[in-house]
Design a protein that fits this description.
The model has no long low-confidence stretch (mean pLDDT 96). The protein is mainly beta and 114 residues long. The chain has strands at 10-13, 23-26, 37-44, 49-54, 59-65, 67-72, 75-79, 84-87, 92-98, 103-110. It is globular and about 35 Å long. The strands form two sheets. It has a six-stranded antiparallel β-sheet with strand order 1-2-3-10-5-8, with no helix packed on it. It has a four-stranded antiparallel β-sheet with strand order 4-9-6-7, with no helix packed on it. Residues 44-107 form the Cupin type-2 domain. Pfam families: Cupin_2. InterPro entries: Cupin_2, RmlC-like_jellyroll, RmlC_Cupin_sf. This is Cupin domain-containing protein. It comes from Sphingomonas plantiphila.
Length: 114
């Protein structure tokens, strides 16, 4: 077992895949030995987005707070707290913050075994 203090994993940075706006990232599973999955939290600040990018694994975006629009292969859906987008291997995906509050997400996906 590994217990992680989220506060120790907090970084303010532009989001990945396009560096659109700013975000707060918590790379919760970074440094966990032998892990098989990534588990992260990210707050997309006002106007920020994780740009469209291909994924080579299934991926989950679960909304904790705020609102956003997720896109997968050109189809866009609105997300609110309590909603989750399950994204499939091979899709072109991205998500952007909308509204007045930051979009806080839990993001999970498998780690590629080397």
């Amino acid at each position: 077992m590994v217990v992680v203090d989220e506060a120790a994993k907090r970084v303010i940075e532009p989001p990945p895949h396009g560096k659109i706006g700013m975000s707060t990232a918590w790379r919760i599973t970074d440094g966990v030995p032998g892990r098989a999955m990534e588990y992260r939290k990210r707050a997309l600040h006002k106007g920020a987005a994780i740009g469209i990018h291909p994924i080579d694994h299934d991926e989950v975006y679960a909304v904790v707070s705020g609102e956003g629009e997720v896109t997968s292969d050109g189809v866009t859906a609105r997300l609110k707290p309590g909603m989750t987008a399950y994204l499939y291997t091979g899709a072109q995906v991205g998500i952007r913050q909308i509204g007045d509050k930051p979009l806080v997400l839990i993001i999970a996906y498998p780690v590629r075994v080397k």
